[in-house]
Amino acid sequence: MELIQLGKAAKSAAFELATASTAQKNRALAIIADELEANAEKILAANEKDISAGREAGLTEALLDRLLLNEQRLAGIAGDVRNVISLNDPVGSEIDSKVLENGMSLSRRRVPLGVVGVIYEARPNVTIDIAALCLKTGNASILRGGKETFYSNMELVKVIQSALEKAELPAASVQYIEKPDRELVSQLLKLDDYVDMIILAAVLGYTKCVKKTALFQ
């Protein structure tokens, strides 16, 4: 897999997302939620492959439960996406402002980060959560989930990209690293020209955000 190509596509998509209207982003989110429900059979079939592989690999029942998707959980995920629609769009909102002695008015406003790379563990719902939040905030994302949910994540991203095209937004707004090779993670951390922030979702359950430019040269 050529990560540079993913990075270039994500950067291009990020420019378009940064200027997308709130209505357009919300429409994309609504379509994603609808498509998750419409493609439930395919998504659950892909998830069953992950569950079967996990059992063969000797994963515990507790971990298998974290991997599991069913109709109720998928409906909940679609509902979460719809909840994101109701959130205020932070892009362009004013953080603070002041008027200088010469009468000039200065203000700080929120803008998208650009491209966000996310490395996370074996929870397929996280794929949708990240994609939805990044879209709402006008950011493109490159995702790398755990190998235990490979088939589920691939199907979920396929649904997301199809929904994006229907909303007339670039499919590359959300991309997935299809190979679980650790070497690809190292390459992702070095994509300074294309990825503006890396989010590491740790095994112990906390999330740490780091600026790549500060920690990865």
Can you give me a brief rundown of this structure?
The protein has helices at 3-18, 22-38, 40-56, 61-67, 71-85, 124-136, 150-166, 182-189, 212-215; strands at residues 94-99, 105-109, 115-119, 140-144, 174-176, 197-201, 207-211. The protein is an alpha/beta fold and 217 residues long. Helix 6 (124-136) packs parallel to helix 7.
Report what the structure shows.
This protein has 217 residues and is of the alpha/beta class. It has helices at residues 3-18, 22-38, 40-56, 61-67, 71-85, 124-136, 150-166, 182-189, 212-215, and strands spanning 94-99, 105-109, 115-119, 140-144, 174-176, 197-201, 207-211. A five-stranded mixed beta sheet has the order 5-4-3-6-7, with helices on both faces. Strands 1-2 form a two-stranded antiparallel sheet. Strand 6 (197-201) and strand 7 (207-211) form a beta hairpin. It is globular, with a radius of gyration of 18 Å.
